[in-house]
Amino acid sequence: DVKVTQSSRYLVKRTGEKVFLECVQDMDHENMFWYRQDPGLGLRLIYFSYDVKMKEKGDIPEGYSVSREKKERFSLILESASTNQTSMYLCASSSTGGYTEAFFGQGTRLTVV
Amino acid sequence: DQQVKQNSPSLSVQEGRISILNCDYTNSMFDYFLWYKKYPAEGPTFLISISSIKDKNEDGRFTVFLNKSAKHLSLHIVPSQPGDSAVYFCAGEKNTGIASKLTFGTGTRLQVTL
Description:
Chain A is globular. Helices cover 0% and strands 57% of the residues of chain A. Chain A is an all-beta fold. Chain A has strands at residues 4-6, 10-13, 19-25, 31-38, 42-51, 54-57, 64-70, 73-78, 87-94, 103-104, 108-112. In chain A, strands 2, 4, 5, 6, 9, 10 and 11 form a seven-stranded mixed β-sheet that branches. Chain A has a four-stranded antiparallel β-sheet with strand order 1-3-8-7, with no helix packed on it. Chain B is mainly beta. Chain B has strands at residues 4-5, 10-14, 19-25, 32-38, 45-51, 56-59, 62-67, 72-77, 86-95, 100-104, 108-113. In chain B, strands 2, 4, 5, 9, 10 and 11 form a six-stranded mixed β-sheet that branches. In chain B, strand 6 and strand 7 (62-67) form a beta hairpin. The chains are: A mainly beta, B mainly beta. At the A-B interface, strand 4, strand 5, strand 9 and strand 10 of A face strand 4, strand 5, strand 9 and strand 10 of B.
């Protein structure tokens, strides 16, 4: 059974903290993605990675960075958390080559107070 | 720039009847279109897809129709069941040569009533 696992289901952090969200996939996928989901805005792409140590900005990268040191792990970093980063964060992975669906993790609900 | 739009935030349908969820897009470069289903506190799960060169794809109770001239796609669920109640996202997929990127719509919340 394919799996994308996010390290936390719920997180509460203070404004200004550095926050790490971790994602691990066991499908040997080349591509990994970080999205955030907000009411009325759908899922918006923050960053994605197509290979180890390779990354590209998505549609809303401001205030975020990412790290991919190993193929199976993709981390999202909030350099200095702000209240407008309170959201549901979703990690996904997919393989390369032709059409392929993306598999999502269960999501991390982050609240910044 | 919202490349994929779902103009109906919610839809209520009686059990046993047809549910029709709509999606419009502006980017003609998408290679595939996908529908994902999302329950609260869970990640989205893939439902059905269609290639941009097709006009219909069917999988059990789910059928997706693509009208390229209108840049419109729709998901039909027949018959609708209470377990179908969820948020449905349509997405366009573009292979950039590096990775396949999904661009999502804003979602439609489907409520199937008894």
